[in-house]
Amino acid sequence: MRLTIENLKAGYGKVQVLWDVSVTVEPGEFVAVIGANGAGKTTTLRAVSGIVKPTGGRVTLGGTDLARLSPTQIVKHGLGHVPEGRELFGFMTVLENLELGASVRAEAKAKKSETLEHVLTLFPRLAERRAQLAGTLSGGEQQMLAVGRALMSRPQVLLVDEPSLGLSPLLTHTVFGALKEVNREGVGVLLVEQNVLQSLKLASRAYVLENGRVVKQGLAADLLKDPGVREAYLAL
Ligand code: ATP
To answer: Which protein family is it in (predicted)?
Structure first.
């Protein structure tokens, strides 16, 4: 399924954050959105998943306009979201958190045990800790759980917000490796990251967001060589 974000405008109350954001994720594509703090990356993902209501523009998933759908209906439609801050249920176990991820979509419920096995293979650490309370996991383990829970809904497009935040290079590598694997299996990924070098290496295409507007886009490999991007985001 293709995700299209066209001329998106959104904000919080009277504060407009997104002025003109257009991003496309082709079926099975891995796309990154990079940009400085406060550029509007998180808000873009929230507007796609229906947590923030857009004030203008259009978001479609597989041709369906998401404007009138609730966040739950958007998940049912095939969108997974790994939110910033993870938003896990700390007093529930790893397994219970994962099972919740499968509770919304009929196709996810039907294939719950199969998907669970797959997620636990992707993240053996979660398998070891399946009975542990989510709130007692390390930051990296929580991030894996947040990705795992989103995968339990068997999404066709996965939004991922800053998965490397607060993680050691080793755990970042594990989480990014899992995203790559999921993408290889056909899931479209829209990754928002401050770790610009890593995300441009993972993605095939990328967009640069500044002050709520897309100011640059292209093949990730080209952006890696772009002098402006290197100076502003890679400190090179
Ligand atoms: P970061 O990398 O720091 O997370 P970002 O690019 O994801 O930044 P957003 O989180 O989308 O940026 O924030 C964009 C702007 O919107 C910021 O100025 C922020 O202060 C503001 N903002 C975010 N969430 C809210 C909110 N709930 N209420 C009011 N303003 C908000």
So the answer is: Belongs to the ABC transporter superfamily.
